[in-house]
Structure formats: structure tokens, C-alpha cells
Input
Amino acid sequence: MNPNRHLMTLDEFTIHQTRQFSNATGELSTLLRDIGLACKFINKQVNKAGLVDIIGSYGKENVQGEVQMKLDVFADNTLINVLKNSSDCAGIASEENEDFVAFDDDHSVHSKYVVLFDPLDGSSNIDVNASIGTIFCIYKRISPLGKPCTKEDFLQKGRNIMAAGYVIYGSSTMLVYATRLGVNGFTLEPSIGEFCLSHKDMKCPDNGKIYSINQGNSGKYDSKLLDFLNYCMEEDQASKRPYSHRYIGSMVADLHRTLIKGGLFMYPADSKNTNGKLRLLYECNPMSYIVEMAGGMGHTGKDSILDLAPEKLHQRVPIFIGSKNMVEKVLEFIK
Ligand code: AHG
Ligand code: MN
Ligand code: MN
Output
């Protein structure tokens, strides 16, 4: 870091981390920088979303006669294009695409990493100006180098993740990323267009006072889970209950709060959606990795999320994630 200033950029930080390992090649740093770049493009577009009345709404032609793209499609295309040009990405899988995409040019077939992402999470919140995000994780491929990557590279257990992160487009734009060295948060400094270290070595508190769930679905929940929700609402001074209920409906935003303040986020299975709603590969795995590297926990109710062997790209799983003691408590009720 330059001793004459206090800001440390994402790039400087990852290079500094790489230098601590003599065998590290810096490829992960390059990938993170590229994902950061894509998210700066997405951020710019997200900030313009409120201007739909002026620039034309999605799917309609704007004054220049261009058709406006839906924001999730824009975010997906942006990440794919940036990663295709990245020197270290062999392919991607995204919530927005049915199949994975193997980059088959001469350079990419020799690249070691694959990236999985939810390009825009919480997209139903765009119209109301609430926080949305991008979620990603990076794996080392297991297929042989020199050939295009294969589906097996994407269907790895969460435990194999090399790095995972999210970007939250909120009152400020932040990138939070985790490796086995820990979790760090970077806030976008708009004047220089760089993510700068603002939240060093983030830890998820062991306890919290907030529970987060779409309680409107209660009619479809299992009775054991309803007992737990009643426990959250019950008065008990010693354990600081009743807990507050907060639910934005944007996993990134709800989990960002949970990571900082502690708490429990749940998207359970219900009688209609027997595997819950959220996707293992693009939402639950990366978020569980981040939360676990920060000392928290991510669980399906039966297994640790990161231990699941994925069967298909768009697999959904129930999730209970956040402060360790709160996840353990809900497991006591539902197991
Ligand atoms: P996406 O916008 O990527 O489809 O994800 C939305 C997800 C997640 O962000 C959020 O936690 C959940 O859907 C909210 O679902 P409900 O509206 O069913 O509560
Ligand atoms: Mn999502
Ligand atoms: Mn999405």
C-alpha cells in the first residue's frame, strides 16, 4: 500500500494477499479484478434504473431507438463478456442460462478456473429502489487443461470453492469477498471508480436479534418450523426475545445485514416448494462459503450446505444461514 494514502484498493489488497504465499500465481486476483470490473458496469446501469421514465422502460425503445435490456439480462451479458476476455476463466454457469458456457478459444481452454454467478439477485426490488446484488463463486476446474471445461467443473461441492463474494448495490456499492484467509469488504469510491477496503476481516456475530423469512408463506410451513417462528416471537428477556423480523426479499441485502449485525436468514422448503426456492450453485453455496469463512453457518436443515454434492446446475435447496448459535437453535427445532 502506498504509505501516503489511507485507501487500499481491491487490486492492491489481493496482490498483497497473494504475496503471502510463495506458490500463488495471482490468477485469482486477476479474476476478482475482472468480476469487480463487470460489477462496476452493472452498478452504473442499476443506478440508471430509476430513470426509466426518461430513458424508456425495459423492453421498449428509448429516444435513440434502442431497445432497453432487462437488467438481469444486462448483468448476465456483462459478466459473461468480461469473463470471456479474462485471462483466467475457462467457463461460466449462471442463474440466467440453462446450460453452462465453456469458453473454447485457444487461451481459455488452458485456464484453471470456472466462475458461477447469480448476475442480479433480488431483481423484484429494482422497481422500488431497494438493494439488489450480484453473487459469485470461483472453483478450480477438475477437467484436464487444454480442453474446454465440462459440467463436472461446475457441479463441485461448496467446500471446493476457492473464493466467493457478492456485490451489493445499495446506499453505497460494496464488494464483499471471502477466501480461506477470511472475509473482507470493499466500498466503491465513485470519485476514483475503485473498490476500497472498508470492512477488514469481517466476522458474523455468533448471536443475533433478527430473523429473516417470508413469513407470509407460514400456511405452507412444517409445524416444527412454525414452533421455531413462535419461539422467535416469544418474550424472554434472558435471550433477548422477541427477535425483530426483517425481510427485504433480496438475499444479498438480507445476508449483508446478517453478516454485519448477526441474525438468521431462512428460505425453507414448504408444502408447495419441497426444495425451497434458492439455487444451490448460484446463491446458497457462495453465500454459505462467505458466512462460514466469517464464522457463521449455512445449513439445509439436514446437511451443511457446503457438503452437498450438486446433482444439477439449477438445483434448489432449503437454507438456514447466519449466526452460528441461531442456526444451531433452528436445527434443534426442525431436526
Ligand atoms: P432472483 O432475483 O435472483 O431471482 O432471487 C430472488 C430470491 C432472493 O434474492 C430472495 O431471498 C428470494 O428470492 C425472495 O423470495 P420470496 O419473494 O419468495 O420471498
Ligand atoms: Mn437470486
Ligand atoms: Mn437473479
